[in-house]
Amino acid sequence: MQRQQTTTSIRFRHGFSLIELTIVIVLLSVLALGVSSYIGLGATMYSDATEREQILNQSRFVAERLQRELRNAAPNSIRTADVALLRCIEFAPIVSSGIYLQAPVAPEAGTELKLAILNWQSSYLGAVPTLPLSIYPRQPGDIYSNNGSTIAFAGTETDDMDGNSATRTVQLASSHSFPLGSPEQRFYLLASSPVSYCFNAVDGTIRRYSNYPYNTLQPLPPTGSAVLMASDVQRVRFAVNDAVLTRNSVVNLLLQFGQSQTSDMFFNYEVHIPNVP
To answer: Up-side HSE of residue 161: CA atoms within 13 Å toward CB?
Structure first.
């Protein structure tokens, strides 16, 4: 009886050997390393997916915004330019448009314009700065240069007494003669400032510029106010295909986004410009 109690007591006092403890510690370390690696991989994948989604959202915004604005650009007002690491596309937004019933076209000169316009606003004539009015712009120079196709829309509105609110008669502030008349007798009232989207390859950003004057030479970058539209931009391509007899003007846009040049996030658009002079 005494011997059995002694044996039991010795077994309880035995414990674990150093080798057993070492093996347990190693196994627990391997298990902890595997669990932490799994959790870390999941966190990294979630972070990458979130960052990718943010980049896609902002890239989709600037791509859609640029598309919509280009579709509302005056015909033949879109031009592109590159210098060093800066690439820009510039255009003249349309404020309003319609058909002219009477206009001084060469060789005639005069001050009277009779316009058929549905969304007429009296503020058009009193805008500061003055809004440009263009008839038959066939190239960017017809809008950005002072060659007679585009003039400052300044003067007074007179009552044509025809009882039709859709037609307006305007007396220009000075006599003018448009070089050519539009085959469809169309006119375009443009925004007081052109708009530019510029890609800066140094910091990988796209900015929208406005509130600057029309210039014969495309400014790079424009001097007006700039708004950041997108970051993490890797590559941008602007290409303008002029209108031909079988189609309108087409603008090709390629916007590549991401943290590196190998990124596969890009938008490739073909924007058709429906406005014709």
So the answer is: 0
Q: pTM of the predicted model, to two decimals? A: 0.79
Query: pLDDT of 55-93, one tens digit each?
Result: 677 778 888 899 999 999 999 999 999 988 899 999 999
User: What is the spatial order of strands in the sheet that 155-158 belongs to?
Assistant: 150-152, 132-134, 186-190, 94-102, 110-116, 167-176, 155-158
- The 8-class DSSP code of residue 257 comes to E
Which is it for the CA torsion 219, 223, 227, 233, positive or negative?
positive
Q: Is 216 helix (H, G, I), strand (E, B) or coil?
A: coil
Rounded to whole angstroms, the Cα distance separating 248 from 245 reads 8
Sign of the Cα torsion 115, 120, 122, 124 reads: negative
> What are the structure tokens assigned to 136, written together?
């038959």
End-to-end alpha carbon distance in the chain:
117
Please give the sequence-ordered ranges of beta strands (E in DSSP) within 46-154, or none if there are none.
79-83, 86-91, 94-102, 110-116, 132-134, 150-152
Q: Where are the domains of the chain?
A: 58-91+193-273, 94-190
Count of other CB atoms within 10 angstroms of residue 132? 24
Question: Residue 137: beta bridge partners?
Answer: none
Question: Are the CB atoms for 179 and 147 separated by under 8 Å?
Answer: yes
Residue 238 Cα to chain centre, angstroms: 11
Helices (H), the chain: 2-13, 18-71, 141-144
Please choose, from the candidates 74, 73, 155, the residue with its C-alpha nearest in 3D space to the C-alpha of residue 115.
155
Nearest to 133 by CA among 191, 177, 71: 191
